[in-house]
Amino acid sequence: GILAKLLVPFQIAIGTAKAAVQMMLDRPNVVVGFGGYPSIPAVGAAWILRRPRLLHEQNGVLGRVNQIFAKHVDALACGTWPTQMPDGINAVHVGNPVRIAVLERAGAGYIEPGDYPMSILVMGGSQGARILSDVVPPAIAALPMDVLRHIRVSHQARDEDHDRVSKFYFEHGINADVQPFFTDVPTRMSEAQLVISRAGASTVADLSVIGRPSILVPYAASLRDEQTANAMGLVNAQAAVLVTEDAFHVDTLSAQINEILTQPETAMRMARNALSVGVPDATDRFIALIQDILSKGK
User: Fold this and answer.
1) Which residues of 85-108 are buried (b: 16+ CB within 10 A; e: fewer)?
2) For labelling alongside 56, which of 91, 92, 217, 259 has CA 20 to 30 A away?
3) CA nearest to 242, candidates 212, 208, 217
């Protein structure tokens, strides 16, 4: 409510004061912020106390908190490239760290589409996935039969969409595994000939490290349109096709899927191009940046 919003500045001030007191006791060598309001007290206290500090922005557009502190830190690390920056701000591209399960499949051999079983992975992310559940199943069903008969689908759908999506695939004779959440996304992604997904920062990082062709549908309701920015590295590398929500229609999507799955050379090129923008050593790069800041502070 209104009262809660009015209290936010006071809560931040109190949190920053507490963080400053704790830092005077602990004297951390460096303070790292990853954006979001929870990082304000720590980064703010480090600024007040002149402790070494840096930020990491995972998306292709700076979040509000990182925008505030961008000019008041020793370094700004970007997970997505290119990242839109305010005037006068320079950033270091370190990439977005990925899970060990993704690293284990980094650059996994890509099996180009052909006259044999082919996998499509569909991931809607945590928000706004309904449009994928509305459009993707009929788009796949509309594929030419000589393509459709080889298709296997892994479709991540929200609980409220699960039954209707599963029913649709079943009624159209499509081999599909529909779940609200996949615990083995890296495996499914590495086995896929094509990924249809939102363009969250972690998904884009996974796609570029494993190296898979994709059709990306940015979440239109995000305030800064960060998912479109996230996708641009893959799109500019010709590793992904970007489709806005207002252009995401059954006929169009079906044609795009068919084009990729019936042109193995194009699909293979997209997979290689995805790898070309991947940063599998993002964690090491970020650590090196921290160490560089520490060495300059000695």
Assistant:
1) beeeeebeebbbbbeeebbebbbb
2) 217
3) 217
pTM: 0.94
Which residue type sits at 267?
Answer: A
List helix spans (H) across 27-63.
40-49
Phi, psi of 224, rounded to the nearest 5 degrees? -105, 10
Dist. CA 54–CA 33, nearest whole Å: 6
Contacts of 13 (CB under 8 A, 6+ apart): none
Q: Residue 215 gets which letter from DSSP?
A: E
Contact indicator for 186, 102 with CB cutoff of 8 Å: yes
Neighbours of 241 (CB within 10 A): 21
Torsion, CA 243, CA 130, CA 124, CA 179, rounded to 10: -140
Instruction: Fill in the DSSP letter of residue 294.
Output: H
Residues β-bridged to residue 118 = 151
pLDDT (tens, 9 = 90+) of the chain, 298 residues, equals: 888 888 888 999 999 999 999 999 999 999 999 999 999 999 999 999 999 999 999 999 999 999 999 999 999 999 999 898 888 888 999 999 999 999 999 999 999 999 999 999 999 876 548 999 999 999 999 999 999 999 999 999 999 999 999 999 999 999 999 999 999 999 999 999 999 999 999 999 999 999 999 999 999 988 899 999 999 999 999 999 999 999 999 999 999 999 999 999 999 999 999 999 999 999 999 999 999 999 986 5
